[in-house]
Amino acid sequence: MRLFTPVPYQVRRVARAAQPVGADLKEDDRILIGSWATNRLASVYADAERFKPDRWIETDSNNYDYPTFSAGPRRCVGYGLAMIMVKITLASIPLKRRPNLVPNIRIDTKVAVTLCSRQPIRVVMSNRNAKIVRTDVHGTVSDLYAL
Ligand code: HEM
After folding, report:
1. Cα of 135 to ligand 1 centre, how many Å?
2. Residue 9: what are its φ and ψ, rounded to 5°?
C-alpha cells in the first residue's frame, strides 16, 4: 500500500491564508496532498521505489510520511478495519489457494479517485499445492515499482 497507494492524492481547501514551506496560500485555494509521492520520499525510504516488505521492521515513519490513510483530523476512519481486512485476506488466500497471474498479462494503471487498473487483472486460482508460475507483466504498472 506504500508503492500502490490506493488513494494517491487528496484535495484540501485552504481555510486561512498561510505560507508553508515558501508557498503563498490564500484562503479558499485548493491544494493537492500527494500521498503517492510522499510514500516514495528517498529521505524517508531508502531505495524508495523497491518493494521490500522487510523495511517496515526498521523504518521509523508516521502518518505524515506514510499518508496512505491520510493524516490529521480527516484521516481515514476505516483505517483499523481496513488493516484487519487486508491482513486476514493476505493470510487466508495461501492457506487454500495458489493465485497465479495469467501468462503475459498487461496491466495499465489509471488514477481516478483511487489507483486502479485499466483492465481486469486476471488470476488463475489453483489448489494450494500448485506451483508459483512467474510470468511477464506488461503495461504501465511496472513504472510503479523496481525489482
Ligand atoms: C485499504 C483501504 C483504505 C484506504 C487506503 C483508505 C484511505 C483513505 C484516505 C486516504 C482517506 C482520506 C481521503 C480524503 O481526505 O480526501 C480516507 C477517508 C475515509 N475513509 Fe478510508 N481507506 C480505506 C478503507 C476504508 C474503510 C474500510 C472504511 C470504512 C469502513 C473507510 C472509511 C473512510 C471514511 C468515512 C473517510 C472520510 C473521513 C473524513 O473525511 O473524516 N475507509 N480513507
Report:
1. 33
2. -155, 160
| Ligand 1 center from residue 76 Cα (angstroms) | 4
- What are the pLDDT digits (tens) for 88-134? 999 999 899 999 999 999 999 998 889 999 999 999 999 999 999 99
- The SS3 assignment for 92 reads helix
User: From the alpha carbon of 83, which atom of ligand 1 is closest?
Assistant: 1
pTM attached to this predicted model: 0.90
- Helix, strand, or coil here: 79? helix
Strand pairing class (115-117; 109-111): antiparallel
Cβ neighbour number for residue 18 with a 10 Å cutoff: 12
Per residue in 111-123, pLDDT (tens digit) is 888 999 999 999 9
For the chain, the structural domain boundaries read 1-76, 96-147
Q: What are residue 138's DSSP bridge partners?
A: 106
